[in-house]
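Worked example 4.2. Below are the chains of a multi-component assembly; read each line carefully before continuing.
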Amino acid sequence: MTKSTATLMQKEHSSPAQLGFWLYIMSDLMLFAAFFATYMILRPGANDGPSSGDIFDVNFALVETLVLLASSFTCGLAYLAAKYKQKVSFTRWLAATLVLGLVFLGMEIYEFAEFILAGHGPDHSAFLSGFFSLVGLHGLHITAGIIWGVVLLGYITKRGLNKNALRRLGLFSVFWHFLDVVWIFIFTIVYLMGVVS
Amino acid sequence: MKHKEYTKIRDRYIYGFFVSVVLTGLAYWFVVSDVFGVGIATAVAILLLALLQAVVQAWYFLHLDEESKPRWKTQSFVFTFIMVLIIVVGSLWVVMNMNYNMNMGPSDMRQYMIEQNKKGF
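Applying the procedure described above to all two chains together yields the following structure tokens:
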């Protein structure tokens, strides 16, 4: 890494807003940890209904994972383009991020609807309650992130890439990357492990 | 000069993305083709892959490695990781231990509670 890159990053990281937001993300991680623990404990409680191996479709979850990963990637590129004041390429990357986020959210909702219509709603068993809570919590975060992203896109289209916009975009990208990190564990612990055992 | 920095940071994102895709694919392959043949070995392997991918993304997407001293973000991240481990492993341990020691099904449990209630606590 060149010295100039280091100073560039340094300047950003010393901002109190960035650190404060980072600490919020850390507390959010602990919230997710509680939901993960709840899910793992409740998983054996299938109440004569379907168990995790019966209903989870790993291929579907793999596509979800790749879509969210791609959106995390384009979000990083959008932030990079914004930092170098390339407004056209920024708009494209952020729009791509939001579209991929919407596709992901749509897939989550589709899966929920499919389970509920088949009679495997959250009220059926402890296992399904835990599943809907954990994945639903993640979906709520994604929804909030998409709303935030749309507002940012509108703001920047109108006001341009000023200092405020860059700071907000920096916080948004941290939030979005964090959601992808949480999803890695949902994919591994809920979907992949659900099929293993 | 600016252009050089730009490509450098962009390449970091591309690198992080490809490593993440490979790690995800590897975990998927382990499970779907049952490479290890033993459930517990597969579970441990994919958990390790997930942890590795989390570190890769913290490095290449969240730029934790480029943080200057004092590394507040890294410190709080490590602290949170320890807390998460205590919450998750601790909860599982306590409940599994309880299930093992109680060793009774729901119907026996119900009968036991009724008897205890009759005695008065």
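Take a moment to check your reading of the output against the notes. Residues 28-42+57-196 of chain A form a domain with the Four Helix Bundle (Hemerythrin (Met), subunit A) fold (CATH 1.20.120.80). Chain A touches chain B through 50 residues (CB under 8 Å).
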